[in-house]
């Protein structure tokens, strides 16, 4: 998607995913107009194709036009620099301290299509001073092996939650199959109650319990999946001042859980995978406030 903003002799061009062939043609046409300067901003863009790179190379290095590139994703800015382009990097993440100062627990809820996303998160987050809890739908006839899979990608301890177990920071806990996972006074409670939203474990019941207990000390991440388990409690999460982050549906094959969540409109952020990882690392209190700007 491409958008144009004119400021006299300066053309400001904004590019967002998806970038189509028509967008690339419009970009070329913009470079053919009479401007003193062009500013091309790549928003939530992680990579660009060869045709777009060729246009930028021709206009900047061959025709010597005054084109300034601005990338909002670090990987893209690094890629441009490796190719010899001059580019400015500006992070899209907001340093909203009212939200992230107090977060102690990150609760991820998801169903189908969320496992790969969770693995990628575990590969890149630090979890020095926060606890990660994962609630996924597990079929009752399947053996829970996700803890062993996740342990391959982190040095932190990964385990299925046990009844009356105290949450410890820098640990990763998963909801066991056929049990609802809730929290009381900082200790897990496992319940054999009937299915809720046709699910057991139920994401909704975990969202409700954890948000009621932790309030603004909780970050909820709604991942990909089918159906709508968890969605009915998002307004409660919001009312409790817990931080609500929703995975961008652009990266999901199973979208219903995301689209249903977005319909509620309670989210604080909608992020792509890389942004989710950056945000978790930023809420980790191991990143001192004075170091946030350098980190970003």
Provide structural commentary.
- By secondary structure, this protein is of the alpha/beta class.
- The chain is built from eleven helices and 14 strands.
- It has helices spanning 21-31, 50-62, 74-82, 97-100, 115-124, 146-151, 203-214, 234-239, 256-264, 273-283, 292-295; strands at residues 2-7, 10-15, 37-42, 67-71, 87-89, 105-110, 131-136, 157-160, 171-174, 180-184, 187-191, 218-222, 243-247, 269-271.
- The strands form three sheets. A seven-stranded parallel sheet has the order 8-9-7-6-12-13-14.
- Helix 5 packs across helix 10.
- The protein starts with a strand and ends with a helix.
Could you provide a short overview of the structure?
This protein has about 300 residues and is of the alpha/beta class. About 30% of the residues lie in helices and about 25% in strands.
Key traits:
32% helix; seven-stranded parallel β-sheet; five-stranded mixed β-sheet; alpha/beta; 296 residues; elongated
Averaged pLDDT: 89
Structural class by helix and strand composition = alpha/beta
Report the principal-axis shape: elongated
Distance between the termini: 25 Å
Helical content stands at 25-40%
* Biggest sheet record: 7 strands, parallel
Please report the total strand number as a whole number: 14
Give the helix tally: 11
Radius of gyration: 22 Å
Beta-strand level of the residues, as a percent range? 15-25%
The helix/strand series, from N terminus to C terminus, equals EEHEHEHEHEHEHEEEEHEHEHEHH
Strand order within the widest beta sheet: 8-9-7-6-12-13-14
Question: Which spans of ≥5 residues are poorly predicted at pLDDT below 50?
Answer: 94-98
